[in-house]
Amino acid sequence: MNPANTVFDVKRLIGRRYDDPTVKKDIESWPFKVVDEGSNPKVQVEYLGETKTFSPQEISAMVLGKMKEVAEVKLGKKVEKAVITVPAYFNDNQRQATKDAGAISGLNVLRIINEPTAAAIAYGLGAGKSDKERNVLIYDLGGGTFDVSLLHIQGGVFTVKATAGDTHLGGQDFDTNLLEHFKKEFQKKTKKDITGDARALRRLRTACERAKRTLSNGTQTTIEIDSLFDGEDFNANITRARFEEINSKAFQGTIQPVEQVLKDSQIEKTKVDDIVLVGGSTRIPRIQKLLSDFFNGKKLEKSINPDEAVAYGAAVQAGILSGKATSAETADMLLLDVVPLSLGVAMEGNIFAPVVPRGNTVPCLKKRTFTTVADNQQTVQFPVFQGERVNCEDNTSLGEFTLAPIPPMKAGDAVLEVVFEVDVNGILKVTATEKTSGRSANITISNSVGKLSSGEIEKMVEDAAKFKSSDEAFSKKFESRQQLESYISRVEEI
């Protein structure tokens, strides 16, 4: 495997700026190269003898394109539409970028839905559970992101009461913590530092991930890697208790969003009927114990497959949206999701003025009136942000738009009505109107980081088609080499 050409974790890049602190931190641990192109992070690889850069949307489109192929083979027909899930805590930029990835892969994206909401559909439709009134907490801890949602389910109506999470917490972080531990162990044993060797780091990370999985079932395991670095072999033992100690801060960090959704939904923890585990990382025993203890020893619900629940829920939603619901239960289903983070604009002094508070059911339309701050002001700028902090610098910038010209008048006389419209995908459109003169202008956010123009999307669609044939040839060559290596290995064993 070529570590510099093996791209993963792209979900942590999509819709983010290059200078985002979390992007900077991830770049330090990734073996592949991420470069800055106009404040957007791009992945740089060597492809067919050339240096090429790909946006996170293009790489996500490759994954979606592969899934499209898998579905077409399974169903025996063309797949042109899809419902795509995203972490509940994805902001507007990340949602729009994900939708763009779907378009690049040749899919008509019917809906973007939140992952824990999709999991709730999978859980709520099982065994006639949707008939009973119940409060269901979805705890979704995957490879790279973490979401908690609290839903009220009754009679096929799924109402999201609150959502919280961390778009930068998951199994990969537990692997990284283990990797750092073993890097120090190796250095202590050999006096050699593997930090700069991408291949050694990739091999060690793979071994760490395997150890993590083993420790979900057993209480100890051994890592063995021949010639890890500079001809030095590496062997080390790790117990489940030590693994839990190394990751104790990260594990404990998953409880705060649980507390947040209970607070936001104004539901006491004793009133939560079911706690549903979703995502591969929920198999870790310590995480299960922390969650159960928080709910006073309550039994956790493990009746749905944590790896498949989100895809199952998305498939049900796709069936409903395409008019192909397979049962009366799904045909009558109604999904009411929420805005995960407040949306608003920056006022004088960079103070955040929320227009759509977090927890608002989508789709929604909210208005707020603003005015001018200077006499004869004819241009008004509206920087749009998403977040919960008073200082806009601490929130996520979604872009900026300008309303001009407006009639000159005294400061404070102009009436500027700003309308925020959030669609069913959780994606935002903003309109501003100057009311005093009756002059109005419809403005939608532009220059949003991660948002692609229709021309850029079309070019990426063409590139994807162009690369497809060379990709297939490369894939066949790689498979042949793997088969040959496997054959040689079997012969050597004989």
UniProtKB/TrEMBL annotation:
It is an enzyme of class 3 (hydrolase). PROSITE patterns: HSP70_2, HSP70_3. This is non-chaperonin molecular chaperone ATPase. InterPro entries: ATPase_NBD (IPR043129), Heat_shock_70_CS (IPR018181), HSP70_peptide-bd_sf (IPR029047), Hsp_70_fam (IPR013126). Pfam families: HSP70. The keyword Transmembrane does not apply. Keywords: ATP-binding, Chaperone, Nucleotide-binding. It comes from Hortaea werneckii. Its EC number is 3.6.4.10. Coiled coil: none annotated. It catalyses: ATP + H2O = ADP + phosphate + H(+). It comes from the Eukaryota. GO terms for molecular function: ATP binding; ATP-dependent protein folding chaperone.
